[in-house]
């Protein structure tokens, strides 16, 4: 069953994020994807939204489709104007991609091409609406298309520092849902009680809310997130568990798997985020019993 | 200078109609020179607003004042004795002036009465052309004193696009091709060699690509 149909049928969906290479060597990407084929419902392919120049998500998504794995590709506003975005969306449909996710993008000054000019011709809400316009048979200037694409479009809730910021992010997500987003991906979940209360607030969005499960690859990363992102709610106890473990790498994988397993009863899916450790995804899925 | 044009009266009325007492502020600098928001335009707008409100069966009390510079906190302080008598401020300064007022008078709504357009120069009576986009890394020394960022529709950095004809840009016969102008000027100055130098991809950080810009002069800052 396709990702879109599973969402509609209220089935639990398992997504895994896989980055494209900074170069043309696709061996790792394809091999990592093959390892989890059949165990996940779709691969989410980020673009350059984190500010690092790499192979486009469109190509990455097509590679996934060629492997028989459904793809969800990121689209965002920093690097392309409305012409380029629409053109790429039409191309994505023709090349077999049926899911896109409108995401926030890192400021250019935080990436690896700091001299580049930012575009932001559209914003996230307008980009969600643009996908709907194209699916409805028209472009943003109202011209009729010769064949309409068909996409399930999702969006994200950006990381938030406190309750006030969360309210703003939920309103932004509500705007994107009103514009046509059919699912929402949350920031990483480290505290299930906190996620429960988040979910109670996010239920009002009226679309499936899919939490991100982030792999804590090291103690340093856990400590860094705990210190710099208070909204992530990494507890002292969680940091202590990794610190005390004799195999911290394995502990991180176990924590991710346990989080996925726990979320099966709470949310309508999960998105696994391993940031370069996609080869470890099978172990997380093992721990999660998936 | 910074150029501006007055907003349509209907838009201004929409801003101010919930309020009874308006402080209408002009600026003696750029917007006076480009005849958009100086003392004279303040008077004209006040009359226009009064008439429109009367016609709509309403009334509005407008106090007119023109500051030397609305973008300068020193002059904005002049408004302190007047501010309590106003429900809202309507500014005919550029966006810098409007924001200076909004920062200073936090409990007063501030509305713009002009659209700030560009940094430009006067070509003849009543005509202003864009000349500078404040890219923060001036190229005029290389391009013969003619800016391809502000004056080329495509912001090309290494010669024309091929769409120019008889020295005019493809977007309109009244738009001069910046690169045609640059070439002609470099030729006249005997500096054609500069045209042949390939300019690298521009660093847009000084143009604002790294966020809002700021100048701090340590020797002047208090």
From TrEMBL, chain A:
Cofactor(s) essential for the protein: FAD
One of the protein's GO biological processes: methionine biosynthetic process
Pfam families in the cross-refs: MTHFR (PF02219)
Molecular functions (GO terms): FAD binding; methylenetetrahydrofolate reductase (NADH) activity
Pathway entry: Amino-acid biosynthesis; L-methionine biosynthesis via de novo pathway; One-carbon metabolism; tetrahydrofolate interconversion
InterPro entries: FAD-linked_oxidoreductase-like, Mehydrof_redctse-like
Keywords linked to the UniProt accession: FAD, Flavoprotein, Oxidoreductase
Catalysed conversion reaction: (6S)-5-methyl-5,6,7,8-tetrahydrofolate + NAD(+) = (6R)-5,10-methylene-5,6,7,8-tetrahydrofolate + NADH + H(+)
Gene3D superfamilies on file: 3.20.20.220
Similarity remark: Belongs to the methylenetetrahydrofolate reductase family.
Protein name: Methylenetetrahydrofolate reductase
Organism: Desulfofustis glycolicus DSM 9705
From TrEMBL, chain B:
One Pfam family it belongs to: DUF5981
Annotated InterPro entries: DUF5981
Sequence ranges assigned to domain Methylene-tetrahydrofolate reductase C-terminal-like in this UniProt record: 111-205
Name listed for the protein in its UniProt record: Methylene-tetrahydrofolate reductase C terminal
Native source organism of the sequence: Desulfofustis glycolicus DSM 9705
Lineage of the organism: Bacteria, Pseudomonadati, Thermodesulfobacteriota, Desulfobulbia, Desulfobulbales
